[in-house]
From TrEMBL:
It comes from Streptomyces resistomycificus. Belongs to the metallo-dependent hydrolases superfamily. Phosphotriesterase family. Keywords: Hydrolase, Metal-binding. This is Phosphotriesterase. The keyword Metal-binding applies.
Amino acid sequence: MSAVRTVLGDVRPDLLGVCDAHDHLFFRSPRLPGQELGRASAARAELAAFVAHGGGSVVQWTPYGLGRRAADLPALSRETGALVVAATGLHQAVHYDDGTLAGLRGRLAEVFVAELTEGIGTSGVRAGLIKVAGGFHALDAHARWTMRAAAEAHHATGAPIAVHLELGTGALDVVDLLCGELGVAPPRVILGHLNRSPDVVVHLQAAAAGCYLGFDGPSRAHHGTDWRMPGAVRALADAGYADRLLLGGDTTTAGARSVNGGPGMPYLLRRVRPRLAVELGEEGVDRVLTHNPARAFAVDWP
């Protein structure tokens, strides 16, 4: 039977409730010095704020080596009442030192499978998805290496593959590689950050291929595309692809958290939800926030 693999164990998909399908409770990268998401108390407050606005679950896309703090996630889930899904996977090469990447050569898929089936480190927390990343309008050698490993891990476990698209670009290259060459069923692929490149023609092609389309990371000052996102979502819904849409907050810096005066996780429900309701209606937005993630993250685990 299909289940979503959360940090508290496998649950029925319908228990996710209102889902932030792409966010971060913990995150640390050398590209964001001084903006680490590393304090458990701040993560707890942010998660509680999301729950207070009607949230039920959060999918953390933080992959291997970027400060996931998997051992802290079960307590946060229990204390706030929100279900949390953790990730395995690997980000772009720029987020890692050479030694870390060298240590994963020849065993990357093995690491992914182990974290999905046995647990992340000694935490005992099993990941529920695989997160990888493309490049700007292209797939470099690192992206192809990680996606091949992700596909191998997917074929061994059934886990969905979530893809960071750099500034929303390269979606069709990802589809060609993962779903074409590597044989991953399109509904098992989630294409993230499409709001950052609101090309409706590309969105429609990716949706027609059968992938899930992630619109995540609203309210970013350096991504001046928020005003185009509702129209892009409406175009997809009008074309019959409302069942392919996912929404997420993608909070990656301490300054962006609501507890620090930023929009944070609650912004997804406080501002994005009512704006999209103008385009899709309340029932349509409810389906995007509840039914779609329940399907996207559900797996017939071996």
